[in-house]
Amino acid sequence: MTDPQIVLTERVQQALASAFGSEHADADPLIRPSQFADFQANVAMSLAKRLRRSPREVAESIRVALTDFPGTVEVSGPGFLNITLDDSWIAGEATGMREDARLGVPAVTPPQTVVIDYSAPNAAKEMHVGHLRTTIVGDALARVHERLGNHVVRQNHLGDWGTPFGMLIEHLLDIGEQAAVAQLEAGMGTEYYQAARAKFEADETFKTRARVRVTTLQSGDPETIRLWHVFMDATVRYFNKIYAMLGVTLTDADIAGESMYNPMLEKTCQDLEAAGVAAISDGALCVFPPGFTGSDDKPLPLIIRKSDGGYGYASTDMAAIRYRVHDLKADRILYVVGADQALHFRMVFAAGRLAGWLPDTVDAQHVQIGMMLGKDGRRFKTRSGESVKLSDLLQEAVDRASARLADRGYDEATREEIAHAVGMGAVKYADLSVSHDTEYVFDFDRMLEFHGNTGPYMQYATARIRSIFRKAGMEPAQATASIVPAEPAERALALHLLGFGEIVGQVAAHSEPHRLSAFLFETASLFSTFYEQCPVVKEGVDAETSAHRLALCALTLRVLESGLDLLGVPVPARM
Ligand code: ARG
């Protein structure tokens, strides 16, 4: 159960070495799926120039050197190699995959420690649609790395500290703890923030109280810290409601908000200054990483302590990068954050390298999340221009899914359960089926379609396979015959399934979950063709053929379910 493209790459490389010498062993054979055969290798064209021979001649030499090959190789056109694998090879590999609990997904040795910074909503405001995407994409990456055997450390870098907390706490005192908690738990963080802000601007005594409160908070005054906890705990309870709805794997143990770094900031600045990495400029402590200039060609500063002595977003990220490498022992750090913060992260990484806190052996990547747009092509908002409340948005997805299931004859409880899976699956899959850095239009009608590359379509594909097994009167796990693809549609499906493990590895390597969605969508499409052309349980289909096909159905189902699980898309048993 190795990906055929990988197997072929190795085999052709061996042939290159034996035909033209070991210096060619690493050449990319340029294997691509082909219309005329299973695959095509185009290496002869590029190699011909270097060898000063004709491409056809080079292709012919490769063909001859491919001895003991589990398929046929033909030279065609100006020098392409058309490769067709033997049915028996595909049968053996697919059957092996069916017997493999890991479905061909490799286990990384030695495991890496991968720190994934994702979700990270701001407590001073409502969790909004942008954080929906960072949450969903980050969670998929966490699941994929774990499946590969890596040690994943989730870090929810909550915006839970800073000057706004002065007014937020004073507002809490004004309206009373109970009322504040009720409001925050209900996800009215934005309203709460706006009310506090309005008073701050209109009322001088409130403004003074808020300013004093920032100082008492900074100094660690026990009562102020208690009030901060009252505020934060209620806010986190709302975030957790959203995570639970979505089926996201984040827990309270993964919270590592800005407040956590507060005690480290003074030392962070001292160490950077002492090492000569940071210097005072216009009263502020700054790092000037080389290569960053502003519009006026002046070096761009990363400000780690403002001229008034206060710390900011960049100070915290410098402390965090040191903590993640030094304390969490990260081999790799992924920051799943909006694309609009690209410059910030490039500067933080550069400053981290300068300080030696982010050594070359540790990879840091900003997984840029593109903006979510409304149907009007602008930043996603409600009609009144307010940002959209996330719990309402998610509930709307469930309600719409429920309406679509109305005519299917389910009892109320079953329908709600399926609607939840379909609604959340639709929202999550929509995020994961496009590349994470593109802007995309949030469109309920499209994401809830039962056809096309959507969550419901993928879920429906699994439900359809399950219904085949119900018809056959057996469980998928009981389909243990070997897989023997005879018809072209069976063969194409089996060949495709062999690539699953390789795709999972690629998602991790490139931090691109949409590669997996594309693979699963192709799986579902090939399954549809197979199911149209190759009856599984039907009169006139002999028992042996039926058993082979059931085994292929079972393998397809496992790949789909396992893949959707990696994406965090729930799979209802029926639909
Ligand atoms: N809370 C920030 C925001 O909403 C995202 C934090 C991302 N992580 C980080 N280490 N800066 O924009």
Envelope shape? globular
Oligomerization: single chain
Largest sheet: 4 strands, antiparallel
Topology, number of strands: 13
Secondary structure tally, helices: 22
Q: If you compute it from the alpha carbons, what radius of gyration comes out, rounded to the nearest whole angstrom?
A: 28 Å
Low-confidence stretches: none
Cα(first) to Cα(last) distance is 31 Å
Q: Which band does the percent of strand residues land in?
A: 5-15%
Considering DSSP H and I runs of 4 or more, what fraction of the residues is helical? 40-55%
Ligand types: arginine
In terms of structural class, how would the helical and strand content be classed? Answer: alpha/beta
Q: Round the mean pLDDT to the nearest integer and report it.
A: 94
Lateral strand order in the biggest sheet: 1-2-4-3
Protein name: Arginine--tRNA ligase
Enzyme class: ligase
Subcellular location: Cytoplasm
Keywords: Aminoacyl-tRNA synthetase, ATP-binding, Cytoplasm, Ligase, Nucleotide-binding, Protein biosynthesis
